[in-house]
Design a protein that fits this description.
By secondary structure, the protein is of the alpha+beta class. About 50% of the residues lie in helices and about 10% in strands. Bound molecules: nickel (II) ion.
Length: about 425
Amino acid sequence: MARLQEEKVFKDPVHRYIYVQDPVIWDLINSSEFQRLRRIRQLGTSYLTFHGAEHSRFSHSLGVYEIVRRILSQFERSGYGGYSEEERLLCLAAALLHDVGHAPFSHSMERIFGERHEAWSCRIILGDTEIHRILSGVSEGFPEQVAGVICKTHPNPVAVSLIASQLDADRMDYLLRDAYCTGVNYGTFDLDRILRVLRPLKTGVVVKESGMHAVEDYLMSRYQMYWQIYFHPVTRSAEIVLTKILNRAKSLYEDGYAFGFMVPAIERLLEGNLKVPDYLKLDEALMQAAFSQWLEEKDPILSDLCERFLNRRLFRYVPAEDVSGAQFEQLRDDLVAAGWDPDSYLEIDFPSDLPYDVYRPGEEDEKRPILLLGPDGELEEISRRSEIVRSISGIHSGKNQIYYPAELLEDERLPESARRLLSRGTSRKG
Ligand code: NI
């Protein structure tokens, strides 16, 4: 397959340089569907907690591509290669495009509209899109193969595990990039060392035993990032306000409310009837323009929620571990009696529904565990060998919290008992 006459280079804060030698990859990067990722932040609402977290899915996707490119060339150099040009391109294209189906503020959107981004990535790759035309130029059925790797149905386990295992290029890039952009000190690990100890087997990618400590470091960094960044309660608070905006807009739409501002793509979204062309119009620029227009809406709740999101008047939170289901129901009733809509102004949150976990030794969620390769070719799951990994395995529940607007505490219409419940413990401002 042809190479570009002159190699293209992107300057990157994490990998220093990202190299592109294939015309197909270059064309994919320049497609409108891939350029859209510049308008979607990698970390959703985290920028409201860590102001540096403005990096986009575009930079992350290039980073994942670069890591896979380096892994493949490492395999080549150490004699584990033997991949055809088309297989190489398959891995690179899948790495580059794995997040192309991300919605704006993905996790909140996924929660409300119930579809995962991988499904959209595949629809975009297989639909009437520039990406589809570029991939079709490689060979017949090539778009289907790329979609198969992303949706984990492709028969090549090495290709799938490069972007979808518990030690994959996706996770390696976002940990380093998120740590760099949020400005935290943890979250780093020796990427070069890990890339050197990866080995492709017929069943997928494994780690040479001597690389165990580098992988421990990577998992510790996941552990730290998970608690300090991904589960941060202020980020959750922003996500909850965002979710409430979308829910309110959806229920107004279903009641036939006449919006002062509406565009067709958002209408299809609220209707639950999105097709690829509308989906591609949704980005964070459009959503934020809508929120800013909705400040003027007649519906006071929608306009108030938008104001809270845009001006970062987020919800406060208190721990909810000791709050019973009955107490929470009572709280909802108290809000109704005081004239507040609990669907829009109260939330009990279980962060364990976030798509992050530190490490799982099992094969749940189709994410392969990390296997160590011994000198005689024997394989052992890493938590059986490493005490550090064992101690952080399976951790996936965060702290339950109740989120609510600070004004509730001052509202005399609410019974004293409700206000006491909300102001207990370490109540903090969002
Ligand atoms: Ni990703």
